[in-house]
Design a protein that fits this description.
- By secondary structure, the protein is an alpha/beta fold.
- It has two domains: about 5-125 and about 250-320, Bordetella uptake gene, domain 1 (D-Maltodextrin-Binding Protein, domain 2, 3-Layer(aba) Sandwich); about 125-250, 3-Layer(aba) Sandwich (D-Maltodextrin-Binding Protein, domain 2), CATH 3.40.190.10.
- The chain has eleven helices and ten strands.
- The protein has helices spanning about 5-20, 40-55, 70-80, 95-100, 140-150, 165-175, 185-195, 205-215, 260-275, 280-285, 300-320; strands at about 30, 60-65, 85-90, 115-130, 155, 180-185, 200-205, 220-225, 250-255, 290.
- Strands 1, 2, 3, 4, 5, 6, 7, 8, 9 and 10 form a ten-stranded mixed β-sheet that branches.
- Helix 2 (about 40-55) packs across helix 9 (about 260-275), helix 4 (about 95-100) crosses helix 11 and helix 6 (about 165-175) runs parallel beside helix 11.
- The longest helix has 22 residues, at about 300-320.
- The termini are far apart.
Length: about 325
C-alpha cells in the first residue's frame, strides 16, 4: 500500500460508521450540464429513476440542469462542491473529454483529477444529420455541396469544444471542406434550429437526435461508429461513406466532486450497477439511443475517463481545431 493510500485510510474508515447508516437522508442533486431533452439529460433521468431505490427505499435523486459551454459550466460547478455524496453529476464526453482537449486554456478544471469517478452509464455514436427539408440525402451530396458553395455551409453543435464540435470538425477536415460553425447551448437547441432549417447540418448525439429523426424534422446521413446502429440499420457509417477509420462515440459517466470517500464511491457504484442490470432500464436506454454500459468500477471509470481524454487530444492535434470557422 502506498503512502497516499495510507494517508487516506483514516477518513475512509471513519465514513461508514458516521454516515453510511443514514445515507442518503436528504435529496441528492444530480447535475447535468445541458438543457433538458438533450442526450445527457435523457440518460441521467432514466438512470436516477432506477438508481435511487438501490441506494435506499426513500432515496431521492433530483436532476439539476446547468447548461452552457458544452457541459463545462456544470462540470466546473460540480468540481467546487462538497464531496459528501449529496451532489453528483452525469457528465458527458464533451465536458470531460473534448472541452478539456480543445480548450485547455479556458476549461478551469482537470477532467480526471478534480472529480470522483463512480460509474460508466453508457454511450453511443454521433449522427451527421441535415434538416428534414434538406436537398442532401447522402454524405457525398453534402460534401460536394460544401465544397462548391460560394458561402460556407452553416453547421452547429451543442457548444464550442463539445463532442459535436470536435466530431463536425473532424468530419469537415477529413472530407476536405470548410463550413461556418454556429454553437448552441444544448442538443435540443440545435435540433430546434434543425427543425427550422436555420443550419445546413450538424454532428449530434444519437440519443438527442433520434426523436427528431423519427418525426422527420432531421435526416441522418451517417453514424460515426465503425458499425451501423440497431436503431438506424439503414444509415451507413462514415467509414462506409469513404472516411476510412472514422470513429467518434460519446459517453456519459457518473461522477462527484474530488475527495469522496471510497466506501461512498463503492456504494454509489453498486447502486448504479444494480440499476443498469435491470432489463427494463437497459431497454429504455437503448430505445432512447443510449447503449447501456456493462460492468464498471470507480477505478475502471477513472481509467476510461483518462484514456478518452487522451484520444480526444489526438483528434484536436489532427484537426488543428480553431474556434469559429472550421
Amino acid at each position: 500500500m502506498n503512502r497516499r493510500t495510507l494517508l487516506a485510510a483514516p477518513a475512509l474508515l471513519a465514513w461508514p460508521a458516521q454516515a453510511q447508516p443514514n445515507y442518503p437522508d436528504r435529496p441528492i442533486n444530480v447535475v447535468v450540464g445541458f438543457l433538458a431533452g438533450g442526450s445527457t439529460d435523457i440518460a441521467a433521468r432514466l438512470l436516477v429513476d432506477r438508481m435511487a431505490p438501490h441506494l435506499s427505499p426513500n432515496a431521492r435523486m433530483i436532476i439539476d440542469n446547468r447548461p452552457g459551454a458544452g457541459g463545462s459550466i456544470g462540470a466546473e460547478y460540480v468540481a467546487r462542491q462538497n464531496p459528501d455524496g449529496y451532489l453528483l453529476a452525469v457528465q458527458s464526453a464533451s465536458s470531460q473529454g473534448t472541452n478539456p482537449a480543445a480548450l485547455p486554456d479556458t476549461v478551469r478544471y482537470d477532467a480526471v483529477e478534480d472529480f470522483s469517478h463512480i460509474a460508466i452509464l453508457g454511450g453511443g455514436p454521433m449522427l451527421i444529420i441535415v434538416p428534414g427539408s434538406s436537398p442532401y440525402r447522402t454524405v457525398a451530396e453534402l460534401v460536394a455541396a460544401a465544397k462548391a458553395a460560394r458561402s460556407p455551409l452553416l453547421w452547429a453543435s451543442s457548444g464550442i469544444g463539445g463532442i459535436g464540435h470536435l466530431t463536425g470538425s473532424l468530419f469537415a477536415h477529413r472530407s476536405g471542406f470548410r463550413g461556418e460553425y454556429v454553437p448552441y447551448r444544448g442538443g435540443s437547441a440545435v435540433l430546434e434550429a434543425m427543425r427550422k432549417a436555420e443550419i445546413d447540418f450538424s454532428a449530434e448525439v444519437l440519443a438527442s437526435a433520434y426523436p427528431h429523426v423519427r418525426d422527420g424534422s432531421s435526416r441522418p446521413l451517417a453514424v460515426t461508429s465503425l458499425t451501423r446502429h440497431p436503431l438506424l440499420p439503414d444509415v451507413p457509417t462514415l467509414q462506409e461513406c469513404g472516411l476510412n477509420g472514422f470513429e467518434v462515440v460519446t459517453w456519459n459517466l457518473v461522477q462527484g466532486p474530488k475527495g469522496m470517500p471510497e466506501p461512498l464511491l463503492t456504494r454509489l457504484n453498486r447502486a448504479a450497477m444494480e440499476a443498469l442490470a435491470e432489463p427494463t432500464l437497459r431497454r429504455r436506454l437503448a430505445d432512447a439511443g443510449v447503449d447501456p454500459a456493462e460492468s464498471s468500477t470507480p477505478a475502471s471509470t477513472r481509467a476510461f475517463a483518462a484514456s478518452e481524454l487522451d484520444k480526444f487530444r489526438s483528434i484536436v492535434r489532427e484537426t488543428g481545431l480553431t474556434l469559429g470557422r472550421t
